[in-house]
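Quarterly update from the structural biology core.
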Amino acid sequence: MGYRWVAILWVQIILVSFALAEDGYITESSLKGLVFNSEQDVQGNGFSNCYINASALNLSLNSRGHGSGSYAYESVLKIEDGAKYDDTKEEYKSSSDRSIAFSEDADFSYAPAGINLGRSMRFGGFQSLGSERTCIKNYGSNVSMSAAFDSASVLSKNLSASLIWKSTSGTDIFHSTREKHARANLNVVAAFSGRGHIAAVAAEDAQHEANILVDEDYAGVYQMAKNMTHDVSYKLNAEADDWLPCCSGGFKDMNPLDARAFKSAKGVFDCTCFKLPASN
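Predicted structure, tokenized:
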């Protein structure tokens, strides 16, 4: 059996650069972004070997697979790193949000794949059981998820994954805000004959032990469905007291519990208002 492939690949890469006007001159700013879109459709018989590695700020996705036999595969990959498309205005604009979205449908059936290179070269061909693995990581929330299948004689898989990282902050003299949102999602539905592995690890940070741990292994003939989502949100609103406000109302209106020594400025500074000395 020789190679018989039909492959369709559509890729769009957009590098977005924003310019600022200053004193009548156009100057390039440091705001740059990337938007990547890829759609793929492959059908054929033979040997296949595929590898995808995608990353954005705090986000990472890795997918790889190989095998010999009959193979039908569709995938969609979209990355937005520092830019996004505004459908209402039909234009690209700067954004602090980062995201990766990936989906794939795969149907694989193992068979040896022979290659005829002529009399001068002899090659036995490929005899490789199917293997596919997808791993996602969100470093903003210290979580990773993966789904892997190997030694597969038959594999039918539908997988989708998404990663999101959002961060905004603002500050002025008396007020500061900071918001973060990190999300990771892995959804897989599969039927296979071989081995399967599902895993997820989440921790507060690199110095702490995992507070979420998923480790599943299957060997044989299985049907499975797994949907995992991890969300982390952080919001800070801070207000600063006026600098030494003792002479404009002082600490008289403070809650007594907040006015204790070393809990507020009252316990550190002597805020007695200045009084003129008495005259003779």
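DSSP finds no helices and eight strands in the chain.
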